[in-house]
Automatic annotation (TrEMBL):
PROSITE patterns: ENDONUCLEASE_III_1, ENDONUCLEASE_III_2. It comes from Acetivibrio clariflavus (strain DSM 19732 / NBRC 101661 / EBR45). Its cofactor is [4Fe-4S] cluster. [4Fe-4S] cluster binds at residues 188, 195, 198, 204. Residues 39-186 form the HhH-GPD domain. This is Endonuclease III. NCBIfam families: nth (TIGR01083). Keywords: 4Fe-4S, DNA damage, DNA repair, DNA-binding, Endonuclease, Glycosidase, Hydrolase, Iron, Iron-sulfur, Lyase, Metal-binding, Nuclease.
Amino acid sequence: MDKKSKVIEIIKIFDKLYSDADCTLDYKDPLQLLISTQLAAQCTDARVNIVTQSLYKKYKTVYDFANADLSELEQDIKPTGFYRNKARNIKETCRILIEKFDGKVPDNLDDLLTLPGVGRKTANLVLGDVYGIPGIVVDTHAKRLSNRIGLSKNEDPVKIEYDLMKIVPKERWGKFCHQLVYHGRAVCNARKPKCEECAILNYCDYGTERISKG
């Protein structure tokens, strides 16, 4: 079975298991999603959601973040880790949004990638979930599962992104990546994947090899 056919079968199964798969970060507007995704670097979405409950009550607009006291902002986001870099990036991002984009989050990849701390993963998530522009979001789950299933042999997230773009139907790019996250958390975790319980075992290179070896 070629990779495109494999993906179609996996999507059919995922649609039964994770029909409601969506972004696991809590947000109410494009700016909040942009900032939450920056905070999620090397941090769990669950922890980010805890931090942002109070963060977005304190900083309500792009101007609030741009004018924030840096040391105070650092403390506000400290539980997410790497808080000095994140605070600096967030403050600078918001300054640029005000100066270059009328205070709005851009709706295209090129402009988003000019923002501090924003890479392709963040940009594609914002484009897909906020603006409905299809994009492949390669986070740790998508990377791990793509390698294990056999959809990509690459380790570099950008190369994995391009590999998936070739085999996943464009209209399913965003949804498929969210479903990979759900499956990665529920079944295909990093340390002890539950291959015996996996609904897509027959389409997974790693799982079938592991089961065959006993």
